[in-house]
Specification:
1 helix, 6 strands
């Protein structure tokens, strides 16, 4: 079986598991891939299922402010 996914970032992949990165997936593409490969790309954050929101990126840590000089 296959399912459509939306590619979130451009990368080379190997959907046929031939041992070579043989296909260029471009951000915004919506290919139909095998269920197993589609699930792998979603789990790695490289793709999302159409109609679902992409996982939110973790917020960047905010460094503490330097101490205020005291008189």
């Amino acid at each position: 079986m296959t399912k459509p996914v939306e590619i979130l970032t451009t990368f080379h992949g190997d959907p046929e598991n031939s041992g070579h990165a043989t296909h260029l997936f471009s951000a915004g593409d919506t290919p139909n891939l095998s269920d197993e490969y589609a699930d792998l790309l979603v789990a790695k954050g490289l793709a999302s299922l159409p109609g679902t929101a992409a996982p939110a990126a973790a917020p960047l840590p905010v460094p503490p402010l330097p101490p205020t000089p005291t008189e």
